[in-house]
Each structure stands twice: as C-alpha cells, then as structure tokens.
Amino acid sequence: MKFKFKIKITKSKDCIHYLLAIILSFFLSNSFAEKAIKPVAEKTVLPKSVIVSLEKNKIPLDSFSVSILRINEKNKNSIQSLPYLSWRANEAMNPASTMKLLTTISALDLLGPQYQWRTNLFTDGVIDKGVLKGNIYLQGTGDPKLVPEEFERLMKQLQGLGIQKIDGNLIFDRSAYAASVMGTNTIDGESNRSYNVAPDALLYSFKTLSFQISKAKQTDYIDISVTPALAGFRIQNDLSLNNQPCDAWKKNLNFDIFPDFSQTKSGPPSLVAKFSGSFPASCGSATYNLVTLDPDTLLTKGFTAAWELAGGTWIKQPTGTDGLVPISARPLLNFNGSQLDNDIQDINKFSNNVMARQLFLTIGLEKIGKPASISNSEIVVKAWLKEQKLDFPELIIENGSGLSRNESISAQHLTELLVAARKLPTSDIFFNSLPIAGADGTMKNRLITQLRKFLHIRKKPEVRMKTGSLADVKSISGYVISKSGNLYAVTSFINHPNAWKGNEAHDQLLAWLLEDGPEPKQAR
User: Could you list the residue range(s) of the whole structural domain that residue 523 is in?
Assistant: First the structure.
C-alpha cells in the first residue's frame, strides 16, 4: 500500500518582500516609462547590399526590421548609446530564439552566475551494513542539464554515504513545476523531436535518446550506440549499407522501440530499439536523436544504469513512479547540478530550447516559490525590466525560449536590452555566451569569407550574435566590434514566408557593420 503526503509550502519573508516589491513596481511603472530610452528617429536608408538581398529573395521591406545602436563604453558607469540605423524598429515582431537573450540576461542578474540547481534525494528507509533499505525519492527543481555525467557524480556521492546496495523503489517528485508547464504541446506537431522537449522538474538527458550510427573502418559493419546508458535496453541492428548520398541518410532508415517481455525475470520489461533499412556508406557517422520514452521510464532506466555502472547493485530493479516526498522521509543527499554561467553557453551558443524554458521557470520558482509557472516568471521578468528602466509594452512572453508563434518584441527594445546588459556586473559572462561568427555555435559557418579580409588587422573585428529561426521567422541579435573598434548592438527580424532565405540579408547587414557602414561619420 502506498501513502502520499502533500507538503504545505509556506512562503518565506523574502518571497513576500519580493512580491511586495513587484506590486510596487507596477504602481511606479509610469515614472519608469518616462525614464526609458525613447524610440530613435528612423534612418530609413538601409545598406544597398541588404536591400538587394531582400529583393532577390522576395522578402518585402515591410517584413524586415532592424535597430542598431553604437555603444560608448568609455565610462562603465554611464554607458551611452547613439542611434546608428533604424528601420521599422518599433514594430512588434516574432523574435524566434533571440528571445533567449531576455531570459539569460535577466536570469544572470536575478539569480547570479554561480546559481546551481538542486536535486534533493530523500528516503523512507535506513542504511544498514551497506544496504539502503527503503525507497529513494528524487525531488527536482528543474535542473536543465541533469545529464549522464551529472548522474555519475550523484552516484559517487550516494556511495560516499556508505551505500552499496539498494532495496527499494525510485519515486519522482516533480511538484516544483505546475502541471501545466510540463505538457507536450508543440507548435509543429513534431513531439518526438528534441527541440520540442517540454519542461520537466526532473529533466534527464533532455528526455532524448541519442543514437550514434557509424560505419566501421575497412568493413561493411555498422555500429550503433546510445546515450544515455539505460538498464534493460538493447539495440537490434538490422541495417545494411547503401550507395545513397549522405544528405538523405534518414530516407531509408526505419526505427521502432518495443518491450521484450521474454527477457524479463523480475522488475520492468527490457526494451528493444530496432533499426532496419539501410544507411549510406558515404556518411561515416551520423547522430539520430529521438524523444521516444516517457520521462519516468527514461529516468528510471537511466538512474538504474548509472548506479550499476558505479558498481552499485539492487535487491530488485526499480520500476519508478511519480509521487510526493512524504513528511516522514528524511534527507539523504542534496545534489548540486551545473552552474548558470556554464548553462547559458548551451542556451545561447546552441539555442537549446528546453534549457531556456527551464531557466525561465527557475526565475519565478526562486523569486516567488513553487509551483513554477509561466505567469510567475513573467511577473518577475517584467518587474526586473522596470528596475532597469526599460519599458517594453509590446512584449509577449510565452515560454522564454522563442519556440513560440505568440512571443513578440520590437527590434528597438531588444537592442536597448543589449545596451542595458553592458551595464550589469554579468555583462562579460553574457557577452561570452553568444555565438562567435566563423568560430562556434549557430554562427560557426557564417561570415567566414567576410571576416577573412580582416586577418591582417592586429585587433580583429568580431561578431557575437544570437540567431533565431522558425518557419516564417529569421532573426539576429547581439554585438559587433567593427574594424575601427566601435561596439554596436544590433537586432534584426524577418517575419515572412520567405524568411528561410533571410540569412544572406542578415549577413550583409553584419558585414556592412563590420566596416562601420559606408558613412560612419555621418551616421554617428
């Protein structure tokens, strides 16, 4: 018989004080708005190269917006921004993944770069002669990067408590999140794609199975491995090689996953991942990511395998189930996960959607309390904007990642946010989290040719730019250090069915800015 006890959460005085501050900030919003940066007058002459690219790709000018401010940082305490270029900059547009900039900038300031997520372990049993006799309760707080490497550390800490064998089940407490934020609704119906993973207070390995498919050298054998390691999981490899081009490697590949009850002696059934069809010999290797297991199954099999890999054993393999930590349970281990300053590298450089969504929820969780919800985080972020004297009336936040048809902000306001970020103590950490053109992240293969012309310059110009992409949306937002050493904050959105052709126009804009524009003296 199972008993569930709900824990009554009493908000601390700090949370109450924070709520009062938020309420007060809304009463003072008018005075803050008066001090906000005023919309700049439009300089309507876009660079000719940008206009040509837009026309060539049939992207109308009224679907394009851009805001560029030149930043004067001679005095860090009184950073100035000067209008440089503005085109439809005050129009509310869908920003796609550039919305992650608002989430990461505000989180760094509100939580601090050293913030760590916690996964708390409890037990209703005792440790006797190396055996934990009782259940383990995992209570999550939304760690966005609870991956196999972190589980390896966690298992070592469990063993440090003198545990070698576990005689109990695993129970997962996700009460830190409101149930509404853990739903699986997607904007495109592709629920098995990693970019659509929904938030989870106990998110393990991004809910994703990552299969590495590779052709063994000098043989016709195809090797398949999987991350994370899972207990009771095997791969049935029926793939053969074909002579098709590598860019269509998924075309002839078939995948299925099913339980294998014939191998089950006790505990949960084994799982079989079956690959059939063919794989191009020209590929060498490829990664096949799938969201195919329910979160409890993935977490149970992942935890079980990690414990066994660390040398631990079970009396009986756990089945894993949802539940709340009972009042009678005692703390077993408080596990600290990765730090925020490291995690925003993944969020901004590689545009990790679920990590951004979890970070956004963490803001509300830490400042207001559980359960975390979109509305609570929105309240906190908008109050923070007012504290920064930024008034964004058009701002719509749906999840904080940009994976949304509803989120909106103007190019002018996102650029103003970039300027404001330069004044914060965490400005360098945020700056370094952005993709570097021609070097890493989502900008690794962009502007390579344009940057080569500056190889002779001792202090080379640089583009640090967050990108965004949805069907009908292309966006960029970040910083450009020009050949003359000027620092620019730039944001540009394209909202149009032909937006998928918009990278060229954005690259032309950034190349123009690397040169300080054709008439930098007049533009300043």
Answer: 42-92+412-524
